[in-house]
Amino acid sequence: MIEAFQHINKAFESKVRLGIMAVLMVNEELDFNALKELLSLTDGNLASHTRALEELSYITCNKSFIGRKPRTTFQATKEGRKAFQAHIEALEKFLKSN
């Protein structure tokens, strides 16, 4: 049973970070507002959790302008996809061990 916890990734213990990664796993790219609405988050909450995932190199943040309006988009990185998949597999393994 303890072995099943070895591959649980602490970065995904937060339901917000888990949600961000889950959404980015099925979407190539998503902008800040769409992600905020999908997960029912405040601007500050989303910003702090995306920053944490970005610091781990699990997601990338791209800032651009459409006319004069700023646009921030997020994508899961290859490393982030791999880490998230390993986390999900570890959870499945743990659930099957009980």
UniProtKB/TrEMBL annotation:
Residues 16-95 form the Winged helix DNA-binding domain. It comes from the Bacteria. Signal peptide: none annotated. Pfam families: HTH_34. InterPro entries: WH-like_DNA-bd_sf (IPR036388), WH_DNA-bd_dom (IPR027395), WH_DNA-bd_sf (IPR036390). Transmembrane segments: none annotated. Gene3D superfamilies: Winged helix-like DNA-binding domain superfamily/Winged helix DNA-binding domain (1.10.10.10). This is Winged helix DNA-binding domain-containing protein. The lineage of its organism: Bacteria, Pseudomonadati, Bacteroidota, Bacteroidia, Bacteroidales.
